[in-house]
Amino acid sequence: MPHDRNQDLSELYRWLDAVAPELGVNSADIPVGDVLDLSKVVAHDVTRPGVPVTAFLAGLAVGSGLNPDALATLTERARNWTPAG
């Protein structure tokens, strides 16, 4: 379920180019498509409120060096999530 690269993301990239340097991040290093894919899967297969928290969790895991594959790991886990009840 890859992110639709044809979608107009110019404002998102403009935003990232403006704020990433303030955090010491090179905006070119942000895997935008992978983050959007993770968000889409979590919103659909887990729960919409889980999107920002899961993205934050992935950022912590990647940023700390604990799991460089956190986006892929979480996306796959969310795809296979079985809701309670």
List its traits:
85 residues; 0% strand; globular
Radius of gyration: 14 Å
Structural class per helix/strand content?
A: mainly alpha
- Mean pLDDT rating: 92
Percent of residues in β-strands: under 5%
Unreliable stretches (pLDDT < 50, length at least 5) are none
Structure notes:
- InterPro entries: DUF6457 (IPR045598).
- This is DUF6457 domain-containing protein.
- This protein has one domain (10-79).
- The mean pLDDT is 92.
- 56% of the residues lie in helices and 0% in strands.
- The chain has 85 residues and is mainly α.
- The longest helix is centred in the middle third of the chain and has 14 residues, at 32-45.
- The protein has helices spanning 10-19, 32-45, 50-63, 70-79.
Topology at a glance:
Layout: H1 10-19, H2 32-45, H3 50-63, H4 70-79
Helix pairs in contact: 2-3, 2-4
Protein name: DUF6457 domain-containing protein
InterPro entries: DUF6457
Pfam families: DUF6457
Short account of what is shown:
This protein has 85 residues and is mostly helical.
